[in-house]
UniProtKB/TrEMBL annotation:
CHCR repeats lie at residues 38-180. This is Uncharacterized protein. Pfam families: TPR_Vps41 (PF23556). Keywords: Protein transport, Transport. It comes from the Eukaryota. GO terms for cellular component: HOPS complex; late endosome.
Amino acid sequence: MRRLKHKDVFTLIEKHNLYSVIEDMLTTFMDLDYKKTIALLLDKQPIPSGIVVEKLKSNKLHLYRFLDEYDKKNIKGKYHRELISLYAIFDRENKLLPFLKKSEHYPIQEALNICQKEKYYPEMVYLLGRMGDTKEALELIINELKDMQHAISFCQEHDDQDLWEDLINNCVDKPEFVTFLLQSIGTYVDPTVLVCKIKPDLEVPGLKNSLVKMLNQYNLQVSVQEGCKKILMADYFSLQKKLVRVHQKGFSVYEEVLCGACHRKLIDKGEDHRFYLICFISANKIQAAP
């Protein structure tokens, strides 16, 4: 037992193939050096992962350390349900949201319940959006996170006109939010929708400058659309002329040429050794004989 409290015990285990000892004293080994213990468990796999998880349930920190490393080497998402609650406890800031975004192997409602309990709003926004409850997600961004740039990015990502209207309706009574919207949404929605909903007695800071910026953005968008339209129209007429020229252009027909529809020869040699056209078909259906 005295030897087990020394880190050289890991060398002894590997040297004499004593991996069976780990299962009976797993928590002790984790307390002694969890990194070396996890390395042994993952590299040599002396104990099935299910047994390891069961034995470490009483110590969530050790369980978190093991499953975090286990997941890096096993991409099938076997313990993703457990990892959500563990990341929420031990490393929410760095790992929880990225994990929720990359994984497809966890129950979304259960993950949402964990995040709601802890009031993890960014994670809740992502999960609600993934579940299709974009309206509630947007309300969280506005009322809890108070992040207008995030709100606009969220609406842009989901590309839903009703969501833009919800954004405007939720912000129209908040002067500082109205200012931000006036300066930001002109390229995404018709800004007159927002302007018409501003109450006459609402004092909006920097209203004049915001309106000028909004109109400039909107005019720029209209100008870009008109420019694109002119380019498309020019391309249309240019391609139309090219198509007409191709259809009017003559082409050579040889005895070997077949009809693309009936696969008969287009021309055939008569008894007087002259060639006669025996099939009429449009030029774009003619193909060369093999």
